[in-house]
Every structure is written in structure tokens, then in C-alpha cells.
Design brief:
By secondary structure, the protein is an all-alpha fold. The chain folds into two domains: 9-41, no CATH class; 45-252, no CATH class. It has helices at 2-14, 20-25, 28-36, 43-62, 67-76, 84-103, 108-111, 113-130, 135-153, 159-167, 169-187, 195-215, 219-241, 243-252. Helix 4 (43-62) runs antiparallel to helix 12 (195-215). The longest helix has 23 residues, at 219-241.
Length: 263
């Protein structure tokens, strides 16, 4: 009886603080466990909270994940070291993630960062074309991509197509990183490739493994992020390996020879 009165008092005290934001991070059962029963060691609830916090942090971070890359390219007025084919393949993977999350009604916290990363990746793709004197191609690239994205998210696109796209994410991610890795190897440096952007993408993919397991339980999604972590790690290693040489080349020769592969 005393415990029941205690919980009722606790409930009346905490209810004013229980709103949509709190409900987003915690289901009703976890709200009761944490704030009414003060059971902060509930394993399932802790994992739910951690997943939501990580997912939200990834989405917030994704708003500027490629901003360092964009700023670096604009400041240098050069897209040296960046591969446009790699951007195209990366967009295929990102777009598949967006469509898969929408079609399967997954929580926004499970896929939302892909939306922001997509916008920034399209921007990088346009800048590569712009700084290689192909502005018209850059504009066409942006318009065609937006048209395809609209079609993909519309009811006209069958779910089977979206699932196939998500399944293709793994080879797309692998091919994208291979193209960028080969470009780095041929150049002998990483050019205008932003270390901060690459490190954030690596950390985000690593965290996404946990949030995908927790929030979706979708094996295809989890395996995709495992592959993404492995591929991003390759570029991270290259950035560290070529660090000194990259700095010497960018500092010594402002307009280094264009050896990047373009289409």
C-alpha cells in the first residue's frame, strides 16, 4: 500500500515532465522503470535509451558530417583527390538506405542521417564537376538525381525494388571505397579528402551497427553497416598513412597535377 502511494506520488510529480520528447527516447514501461521505480539498471531499457541517444546524435552529427569536406574544397578551389565515380556509387548506397527506411516505416532515428548525408554528398558531387570546369554536367547531375529520388520514394516504386537497392548497398559501398582507395593510391596522397569527414563517417557506421540491431532487428541493415565500417576503415588507414605526404604536396604545390579519374 505504501509502495503504491509512493508510486502515485512519484507519478504525479513526474507527469508534467513526461512529454513527446521523453516518449521518443523511452517507451512507457521504461519510463515507469526509470522515473517511478528508480530501476536504472534495467538492461533492456538502458539499451533502448542508448540506441535512441546514439541514433539522435548520429542524425545531429550528420547535418555537418561532410561540411568539412565541402569547406575544404571551396577554400582550395580544387576537388583534387576526390573521385566523382566514388560519389555516384556512394549516393546509390545512401539513397537505398533512405528509401528502405521510409518503405519499411523504420524510426527516423534509425536512418535519418542518410537524408542529411545525401544532401551533402550531392553537393560534393556538384563541386567536383564545378572545379573541373564541368558546371553544366554538375547541374544535370543534381537535377537527374533529385528526379530519380522523387520517383523512388513515390508509391510508383515497388517495395521489391527498394529492397534490392538496399541489398546492393554492400557492393556499392565496397566499390565506392575501392574507387576512392585506388585514387588515393595512384595519387600517392589523399588530396582534398577531409580527414574529419572520413573519421566521422567511420564512427557513425560503427554506432549504427548497435542502433540497427536495437531498433530494427533487420539483418540486411546490420550487415550493410558492418561492411561500411570495414570499408571506411580502409580510407582511414590511407589518410593516416599518406598524412605527411599529403600535407607536403598541398602546402608546396598549390595547383597539383590532376590525376583523379573523372567521368
Amino acid at each position: 500500500m505504501v509502495e503504491e502511494m509512493y508510486l502515485q506520488k512519484g507519478s504525479s510529480f513526474m507527469d508534467p515532465f513526461k512529454g513527446d520528447l521523453l516518449a521518443y527516447f523511452l517507451p512507457e514501461s521504461c519510463y515507469t522503470a526509470f522515473f517511478l521505480q528508480y530501476n536504472f539498471i534495467d538492461g533492456a531499457c538502458f539499451k533502448t535509451l542508448l540506441s535512441k541517444v546514439l541514433g539522435t546524435a548520429i542524425i545531429l552529427g550528420s547535418r555537418m558530417v561532410k561540411l568539412p569536406q565541402i569547406v575544404k574544397v571551396i577554400a582550395a578551389k580544387s576537388a583534387e583527390g576526390l573521385s566523382f565515380p566514388s560519389v555516384l556509387v556512394e549516393l546509390l548506397a545512401i539513397t537505398g538506405s533512405i528509401a528502405y527506411g521510409v518503405k519499411n516505416s523504420f524510426p527516423f532515428s534509425a536512418w535519418g542521417e542518410a537524408l542529411f548525408v545525401m544532401v551533402q554528398t550531392v553537393t560534393v558531387g556538384f563541386l567536383i564537376q564545378f572545379y573541373t570546369k564541368r558546371t553544366a554536367k554538375g547541374v544535370v547531375f543534381v537535377l537527374v538525381y533529385l528526379g530519380l529520388l522523387f520517383l523512388l520514394l513515390s508509391p510508383l516504386t515497388p517495395s521489391s525494388v527498394v529492397t534490392t537497392m538496399q541489398a546492393s548497398n554492400m557492393p556499392a559501398i565496397i566499390v565506392s571505397r575501392i574507387i576512392q582507395g585506388v585514387t588515393n593510391f595512384r595519387n600517392g596522397h589523399t588530396g582534398q579528402l577531409s580527414a574529419m569527414t572520413v573519421f566521422i563517417l567511420f564512427a557513425g557506421s560503427l554506432a549504427r551497427i548497435f542502433t540497427s540491431v536495437q531498433e530494427t532487428g533487420d539483418t540486411l541493415l546490420v550487415v550493410t553497416y558492418v561492411v561500411s565500417v570495414a570499408c571506411n576503415l580502409v580510407i582511414v588507414v590511407q589518410i593516416l598513412y599518406y598524412w605527411k605526404r599529403t600535407q607536403k604536396i598541398l602546402n608546396k604545390v598549390p595547383d597539383i597535377e590532376k590525376t583523379t579519374v573523372h567521368v
